[in-house]
Structure formats: C-alpha cells, structure tokens
Amino acid sequence: MITLDDFDLALGGPDGCPAEHDGRGGPFGRSTRPAPGHWLVHDDGRRDPLPVRRWHGPAEPVIEAVAARCDGPTIDLGCGPGRLTEALARRGLVALGVDRSAEAVRLTRSRGVVALRRDILAPLPGEGRWAHAMLVDGNIGIGGDPVRLLRRCGALIAPDGTLVVEVDSPGTGLWQGRAYVLSGSPGVRQRRGPAFRWARVGAETVARVAAAADLRVARTSRSGARCFAELVRS
User: Fold this and answer.
1) Percent helix, strand, coil in the chain (nearest 5)?
2) Which domain holds residue 158?
3) What is the pTM of this model?
4) Strand-pair partners of 115
C-alpha cells in the first residue's frame, strides 16, 4: 500500500470516499456518488491504478500467504488500512502497523490491531529485534531511494530476521523519480495531489539493490502477477 499523507482521500472508504454518517457520527449507508478512481502517475509517463477497494477489504489469499511466512513479532511498514497487520494478528503474532497517514492508522486500529503513526525513518519500537518486517503493496517505492529504505528496514529486524518486500514484475528494472496521485469520478474534474519522490524495483533488480543495502535475497516467489522477495542480512 502506498502510504503518504496525500493518500488520505484514497483511504477514506472502500470506494475511496468517506462513508455517509448519521447524526451520531455512525455510518448509515454507502454514498450514492460515483466511486472515484485513483492512479499513481509517474513522471516517466507510467500510470498505475491504485487498488483502493482491495486495500480496504479482508486479506486476499496472496496476503494471507505472506502472513503465513511469519512466525514471530512482525512490523508492517506502510500498513495502510491494515489488512496485513490484521492477518498477522489473527495468527497469534505480535504485529505492529506503521504509517505516516493518520487515516491509515485510524483504519488499522478499527480492525482491532495495533498501529502507530510514524515515519519509517523515525525511531520505532523494537529496533533490531523484529523477527520480520514487511514492505508490500508497492511500499518499496517510499522515499524514492530503495537502497536507503532497505538499509533502514534491515536495521529493524533481528540478526536472523527477514524482510519481505513486494517488487515489480521482471523487466521493470530500477526507476527513481517523482510521482503524484490522481483521483476523480467519471464526469467529475480530477484532483491531482502534490508530487513526491518514488521508486520502482523489478524482480530482476532486487538482488542488486538489496546487496547495496547489506542484505541478500534468500527466496523469491510469485503469485499471479505479484512478485515477492525475502531478504536477510548479509
């Protein structure tokens, strides 16, 4: 899940817009407005749809499979609405979701799991002691510098811990630049968010990027079009 403060609009509800509320503040039904679409637009011309409905739903089979790899305390970095954090907690694991977005943290906590509003680069609980750290749903792009990000995540895990990252399909290579979120409903003026630094890492490139961060690839896997790499300390 891509998680910056600018993504709060996409985090507002399963269709990417806030639910309607009654006079007591409780939801009373879905909005009749057309559901907006959301895209991540890169400055090299690539435009990726953001699967907002999937993020808000229960953990899909591929996320359950990722959670099944964990057998100890796990930190979910860029947790978004918290479906992975929840899947980890349901397995009886100590799980902590971390996100910069206040809305993401609120949604994660509403699932009955623990979440902390914090930048990934800021001090975090349990540094160097987590059995597993997670960067899924495109989060390897956060900050536009995957080497710096992976080095930071490597410092969070225990010496025998693992870092699970989702990467792009083979052929993507390594791209670093700027991107922005574009949101809008059919027939309605679209809203463009501010630009921020972002990155893409292809499956064929992750070993090189990991090595530069003093990590190595212990395992790779694929589920449909989605690719994952499990990294350990070198």
Assistant:
1) 25, 35, 40
2) 5-20+27-233
3) 0.85
4) 97
